[in-house]
Amino acid sequence: MIEDPVLQTVELGPQWPTIDPFLFCAHHDDAYPAGTADLGPDPALLEGRDLGMDFEGRDGWRMYHGQTVPGFPPHPHRGFETVTYVRKGLIDHADSLGAAARFGRGDVQWLTAGKGIQHSEMFPLLDAEGPNPLELFQIWLNLPSADKMVDAHFTMFWDDQIPRVRADGVEVTVIAGRLDDADAPPAPPPASYASHADADVAIWHVVLEPGATWTLPKAAGRETVRTLYVFDGTALRVAGHDGDLGRDTGAVVDSQVDLELSSPEGVEVLVLQGRPIGEPVARYGPFVMTTKAQIQEAFDDYQRTRFGGWPWADEDPVHPAEQPRFARHADGRVEERQTTPT
Description:
Shape: globular
Largest sheet: 7 strands, antiparallel
CATH topology of the largest domain: Jelly Rolls
Number of strands: 25
Distance between the termini: 54 Å
Number of helices: 1
Number of domains: 2
Oligomer: single chain
Helix content: under 10%
Strand content: 35-45%
Structural class: mainly beta
């Protein structure tokens, strides 16, 4: 008798529950309207919103902590990593290292917070004539205690650098973790948990067209935990499981078997996997450490140093409307992608 490969299921909300080494995954999907000269929505559309804390989703979009432009003005992090995968729209990044970027449309930003960083993530509405849809995943990946106080590190993976496995009716975007014969994805930051040879960290985005079938190969490590998140489409069929996994469902699956996936009507799935770090987790807001005492130390350090301060003139910096996608690193190195911003 073949055992059911689906070990546990859970319904998904805006922030998806995850398993060690991941801390959580946020799925943002906002149908922003046309932008103004300030790269934000028409001020008339902001009336009645709780600006600075707008998470209601009225009319299909949110301002989050933004006042004029939607997004997240400067906020600190310590002790973990953020992996931001943008499917639609663009993000304007700035941080306390002096790094800046405009990225999106398939790009990934990987930020190791380490001993401390401030960054802002603003969502400029660059199209003045039509809608400005934005869809992104932000995944929080923990750091082992030995690496929580490493130097902060900013990395960009551009869309054209990220391998994609394509077969009949199947496309898999390989953000992290080698997938069979696919090209290797860009290397994670040097102090990332994903850079550990035995961490078996993988982040894959799987798209199955109607009627398509694809086999997810078993993981390399016996301790690897693998979770599938069905976030778009109708239902995912997992061979050996009685019933389909519906949209907005997470499923912990057996990582030690090849898993045949299919969908009668088409589906999109995010796969997160990794070997658990297996250490205590103390977390409070933007800080994730190993002990409560380290959390208090993080607050004390931030109040004293601001993690290097804020080298930008604005509290919610956005780049000029005509700026294409780019990244300026803390060492002054500049990467550019010659694409129009709209």
